[in-house]
Amino acid sequence: MKNKTWFGLLLAGVLGMAAWGAWPSSVMAEEAHPTCGSKDNPCPLQKWMKGTLGAALAGNDLPALAKALDKSATFSPDPSWEWGTIAKAGADAARKGDVAGAKASCKACHDKYKDSYKSKFRTKAVN
Fold first, then answer.
1. Which of 5, 46, 53, 108 could be bridged to 42 by S-S, CB 3.0 to 4.6 A?
2. Any residues with CB less than 8 A from the CB of 45 and at least 6 apart, and which?
3. pTM, full prediction
């Protein structure tokens, strides 16, 4: 009987922590998508960026790059982030034929938000 009680309390504690958000979100995300982030199983935003932005850059298709950067401006999971502003600046640069400026906006956004995004939102769907 003691073992059942102990197990029940442990299970209730773990479930309670998960329900109240006390369980680290990165742990829950990793359990939900244990291989998310690899080349074989990229996370949703990673997959979209490589397939859309990466393809436009690789093909030197600046109109497609501008369109993709405009779309990526809508993906910010936190309204306080300047993600949209940075992406729109990159889209404007692509429309002007400024590949270096477009790439600089990608780097600026990655430098500022990549780690936070990965730790909190890596499994978030891309709409």
1. 46
2. 75, 117, 121, 122, 124, 126
3. 0.71
